Structures are given as structure tokens and as C-alpha cells.
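Work Package 3 committed the consortium to producing structural models of liganded targets before the mid-term review. Because experimental data for this complex are still outstanding, the team generated a predictive model from sequence and the ligand definition alone, so that downstream docking and mutagenesis planning could proceed in parallel. The input record is reproduced below exactly as it was submitted to the modelling pipeline, together with the SMILES string for 2-acetamido-2-deoxy-beta-D-glucopyranose.
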Amino acid sequence: MSGAGRWAPLILCLLQAAPGSPHLAPPLNVTLLSQNFSVYLTWLPGLGSLQNVTYFVSYQGSFTPRRWQKVEKCAGTRALVCSLMCLKKQDLYNKFKGRVQAVSGSARSPKVQSKYFDYLSEVEPAPPILVVTQMEKILGVNPTYQLPPCMPPLDLKYEVEFWKEGTGNKTLFPATPHGQPVYIPLQLTTSGRHCLRARTVYTFISPKYSDFSKSSCLVLEVPGLFWIQTSFGNLSAQ
Ligand SMILES: *[C@@H]1O[C@H](CO)[C@@H](O)[C@H](O)[C@H]1NC(C)=O
Ligand SMILES: *[C@@H]1O[C@H](CO)[C@@H](O)[C@H](O)[C@H]1NC(C)=O
Ligand SMILES: *[C@@H]1O[C@H](CO)[C@@H](O)[C@H](O)[C@H]1NC(C)=O
Ligand SMILES: *[C@@H]1O[C@H](CO)[C@@H](O)[C@H](O)[C@H]1NC(C)=O
Ligand SMILES: *[C@@H]1O[C@H](CO)[C@@H](O)[C@H](O)[C@H]1NC(C)=O
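The resulting structure, written out as C-alpha cells with the ligand in place, is given here.
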């Protein structure tokens, strides 16, 4: 075995103790990930990291390499995550990457970069929130979304599933463009507790599906009843 291995701990100690340039362990697993139409930079504390560590985040677009923009919201954060969505001068049509540095007192860690993230191909859609209204013998299902205000227009559709509780037979309605309602005809035989849920289909080059929303259930008995959504996400008669 070479001598380098044996000397490494001592060299590390000297580096850490060197006056004027104290070092901190670099943050680990610096990753850009998408959730709910947004993008987050996440990381883990460096090995043997001190208690009182804060983090500073910046990002860079592939169009302006070497120009790092500070993310003011996350300057001095103690969290291990920073939203990189809807930032000043951000261009979501081009790839970008993030970088994070740990700071404790006058000690600084090296800056660690993530890989590049391509919003249009890597964004993860969230399921819609369904608003359900009954009109005579039809259920009208309207999707709503809470989208980031800076989100570019995306090709979003949604698919509704409808079924009678306790049966394994779910009816999947065809993908419908975001903004248009889905109408479910109710037959005279449609009675008992029924449930609905939906997922988003985002198509860029190939379709990408969100998880399904939580099921909303309602009791169908007499046509013409008026339904409200309870705080538990159930639908009940008034
Ligand atoms: C951090 O990254 C390393 C190497 O990429 C991986 O082995 C490890 O599982 C990751 N840790 C966590 C908590 O994600
Ligand atoms: C933690 O950091 C803050 C700000 O840098 C400093 O004021 C405080 O004294 C530190 N606390 C400890 C326990 O080091
Ligand atoms: C999803 O993002 C929107 C805005 O971007 C936000 O209002 C909403 O609370 C988020 N939902 C979840 C479940 O995080
Ligand atoms: C499943 O549901 C569809 C539409 O509600 C119905 O036409 C079909 O007969 C059902 N199949 C079974 C096996 O219950
Ligand atoms: C909502 O539905 C769930 C599952 O069927 C049930 O356990 C719960 O009691 C319902 N809540 C209300 C407020 O009706």
C-alpha cells in the first residue's frame, strides 16, 4: 500500500486547520428533481458536518455558462432543499443546473454542482384536483391545477376513472385536454357509492403520467340531488 493513504487524514487535518481558509466538507448528492410541475435542488450534509451549517445556492443556464445567479430565497438556508422554479432571468426552455456551498462561521465548503436539468423533458406532472357537479343524469368533472405562475404552456391532458365502490370494474375515460370537463352519463341503474379519481398526462415526446389523485366518493341514489365536497375529500348529499 502506498503512503498516500496513510497521510490523507493528516493532510485533511492540516487543510481544515490552515488559518484564513478553513474548509467544510462539501454537500453530498446534489440533485435537481421535479415534483408538482416544479424543480427543486436537494442535497445532504457533508460527512462530519458541523451543527451550525447554512447553505448558499446558485444556478446557471446552459445559455450563459460561467454566469452563476444567486438564489436569494435560499441564501443562508438551513434546509436541504431549495426551489429552483420561477427565478429571476430563468429560462425554462433551456437546460440549467444548480450548485450549493456549505458555510459555517468563516469556514466554507467547495461548491458542488448538480447535473443539468431539462424542464420540458424532465418535469413531473401532478394529478388534477377534481371538482364534481351533478346535473340531472350526468356527472360533470372539472380538473383544476395549481401551476407555478412561470410555467411554460405544456400539453396537459387528464384521464378520469369512475367506478362503483367495492367492484373491481373501473371505467377509464379517454384523455381530455386540460380545461375541458369530462361528462359521465348516469344510467337509471347507477346507484350506490361511486368513486372518481384522475391522473394527468403530459406529452412532450412521449406521454408521462402523474399518480392518480385521491379518490372522491359519492352516493348516487336519486337523480337531481345536490352534492358538496366535504373537507375529507368525500362527496355527500345535502
Ligand atoms: C448519495 O449518493 C451516493 C452515490 O451517488 C449513493 O450511493 C447514496 O445512496 C446517496 N444517498 C442518498 C441518501 O440518497
Ligand atoms: C451559528 O451561526 C450563527 C450565524 O452564523 C452565529 O451567530 C451563532 O453564534 C452560531 N452558533 C453556534 C452554536 O456556533
Ligand atoms: C403544487 O404547486 C403549486 C404551485 O406551484 C402549489 O400552490 C401547491 O401547493 C403545490 N402542491 C403540493 C401538493 O405541493
Ligand atoms: C364494467 O363497467 C362497464 C361500464 O360501466 C360495463 O359496461 C361493463 O359491463 C362492466 N363489466 C363488468 C364485468 O361488470
Ligand atoms: C370519507 O370516506 C372514507 C372512506 O370511505 C370514510 O372512512 C370516512 O368516514 C368518510 N368521511 C366522511 C366525512 O364522510
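Reviewers should note the following from the model. Residues 52 surround 2-acetamido-2-deoxy-beta-D-glucopyranose (ligand 2) (CB under 6 Å). These observations will guide the Year 2 experiments.
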